Structures are given as structure tokens and as C-alpha cells.
Amino acid sequence: MTLKYAIWYLVQPSSWTFWLAAGALLLLWCRGDVRWARLLLAAAIVFPVLFAWAPGWWFVTRPLESVAERVKDLPDNAGILILGGAVDLASSRVLGEISINENAERVTEGARLAHRLPNAPLLYAAGRFVRKDPQVGESLRHLLNDLTAGRSRVIVDQSSVDTCDNLAVARKVRARLGLQGPWILVTSAWHMPRALLCAEAQDVPVIAWPVDRRAAPDLRGQWIAANPWRAMLTLDQATHEWLGILHYRLSGRTRALWPENTGADAATPDISSDPQKSVEEIRPVAKNTGRILGQKTFIETFVELKPLPAVADQRTQPPFHAAPWSAPGPENVDRHAHEQSLVEIAGASELAIGARTGGQPAA
Fold this sequence. Notes:
By secondary structure, this protein is α/β, with parallel strands linked by helices. Helix content is 45%, strand content 11%. It is built from 12 helices and 7 strands. A 5-stranded parallel sheet has the order 3-2-1-4-5, sandwiched between helices. Helix 2 (16-31) runs antiparallel to helix 3, helix 3 packs across helix 11 (228-250) and helix 9 (163-177) packs across helix 10. The longest helix has 24 residues, at 333-356.
């Protein structure tokens, strides 16, 4: 762990309540200053109420996630670039197998793109922390090969340190492969602005493909967080991104404070990212790897999106969940049994995720 990350872990917003309360106790103990001690203690109470239970975290996170939307049409000559951060390195070293964390959608969505573009090379920017344990890097490579079913050439970078290093490596790999098209940049939506700024600084053409959204487009249903601890962790991540954007600009690693190009001019908006305008039929295909479902999430199950047959106007088609249900009959009993098993698997995954987040749904 570098010094800057050690300092960040001490001063991140989730620790502010502790430091405010500790400051109040110190003032009361050392100086007997009751007035300032009360103010600090009140701040220690009000802060988590405003930013964890109330939607303060949303106002910090949403501007980051709204910088880019997915596109519908992707060039055939593009490559797939997945930025690291989806692997729990500490757990992977101890367990001797890949452990995916809350950013797992970077991996699953990158694998889905590999099925959509079977000839595209796939670069996973794992970073130098993976290099410390070659077994983790090799296991990660095998996992990506399994998820993509060998459809893409998988490259795992183990040399970069941070986001701008990831894009610098992507530029070199693009030149070495002779890739003519842009990279499809797959990373969490809250991390996308900094990634795009680094891409502009490195002159790497990219098409933004944000995943792992935490803040919905509006506050309906989010005025009170269902999981305050998850909301606080989201606030930590968003605050870290804002400080990272400022740090990169002040250190000269980026050319601006906000990205100007998301690659959307090379394609049209992907309306399938809007659940009310979905044009793709989501068919989860569960692939059990032999272990008990629920011990791990996102590794035992992989979601593959299969497009609907072409129609005259796809925007008028209802989403998959709105399709009429048909009773199981002789002609569709297998389909009913298959879908019922997928519902049970999805329920087990929800329970596993709930267990990791304290039994509450995500904020």
C-alpha cells in the first residue's frame, strides 16, 4: 500500500464520524471545552444522517455517472479495455482463486462484449498489484478465457499503477496489435470521467461503456437509503474520484478537469441501457462451476445478453419483463422449467449479495 492510499483510508468520508467524535472527546478531556465538544459531536451525528441515510451521497455521485452513456452500435474493429478493480486481491491470494468484489460488472459486461465482438482483443488492466502474485494473474486470465469462451484474445496487464498508466499501456498494446478501431472502455460509471480524461491525455481513442451504476438518474425511491453503509461506501468512492480528477489535473497528467469526448460521436445511443426502452432480451444463462451456489457471486453465474430478432422499429418493442406469460403446456414445458430454475438461481444470488451487504438491498 502506497502512502497516499494509507492517508486516504484515514481521511475518507466514512471515517469522518469517528474523527469528529474523537475530537469532541479530546476537547472535553483536555480543555473541558463543552461548547466545541457539543458542536463536533453534533456534526458526527448529522454527517452520516445527511450523506448515508439521506441522499447526500447521490448528489456527490450522480454528476460522475452522468458523463457518458452506452452506445448502440459498436465498430467491428474495436478492442475491449477493462480497467482493473473488480478483483479482491487479498482474498484471491488467501483462497488461491479469483474472488470478485462489488465491481464485478466490469468483468461480466466485458465478457458480454467479447461475445458481441468475437474478433476483438480483450485487455484487462489488472495493475502491478496482481504482478506480486503470478498465480492470481494466471487465474484471472483463465477466468476471462472461460467467460469469453475463447472468442477474444485475452491480455492481462500487470505493469500499470493507476488509471492513466492503464491508458498508457492500452496505447502501447493498440499499436502492437495494429488495432485500427478504438478501445471500448469498460469501467464503473463513477470512474468513467477520470478514465476518459486519461484517455484524452494519452491520445487513446475510446468509446465509453459505463457499468456498475450506483446513483439512479433521479431520486425516486432513493430519498432514504435502504443500506446506509453501502451509501457511505459509494460516497467514499465518489469523493476519491473527485479528488483524483483534481490531483491528475494539478500534477499535469491530464489536460482538463472534465472530459470532452466520450466516443459517442462514433455511434448512436444504446437505448437498451434504459429499462423502459430495452431492445434486448435478457436471458440469464447460469453456468455452475461445481461449487455450492451462493458461496461466490458473479463467478458461478454469468449473464449473457442475446439480442431479439431484427424488427422494423425496435424502439416500439416492449421490454423482456413485459412479455405475456404463458402457462406451461406440452409445447413449452421445457422452457417453463428452464425459466423457473433461473428464477431460483437469481433468488439465491440475491440472498448471497444481501448476506454480504448486511441483509439489505443495495443503496
